[in-house]
Amino acid sequence: MTRSSTSARNHPAYPVFKKTLKKITVKGTHPSPQEILQLQDMFCRKKGIFHLNTISSLHVRHLMKVHGLRDFFWWRHKLTQYANLLRHVDLAILREGGVGYMGDEDMREVCLWRGLNAQEMPRSDMRQYLECWIDVSEQLQPGMQSLLLHLPILLGYNHPSRHWDDLTVT
User: What are the residue ranges spanned by the domains of the chain?
Assistant: First the structure.
């Protein structure tokens, strides 16, 4: 059992976390943005067992692969920079009028940056994924980059077109 899993059971948000994982793995559905935001404490700096500074280096490497980042040094710093970039892009999308004003190709590219290969997806599915993502992103407190980096798993794990399948380490 890993360090994170043993302390997860003692965390106050554990019941919500367990319910969310069941929803993803057993029911094959995804949590709502509100359910994801209830997990923020597990990803924050002070008491968060999934904060970038507290997760194992193997966990960090998996996050690097999920996001298509390749580098040999400064993994946690690169992930933090990438999460900040995603957040700023999300806020820019909102300033420009939201996901509905994006073209199909732009929407596909933005989905790919967020862990979803949307080449064969209908526009409505891409829009739903991005709206959920941006709903979470815009409400995140400062220092919550780790939660943003885990969103491809929380929002896209059961999508047949998640792009990290070919990159996953066994």
Answer: 3-167
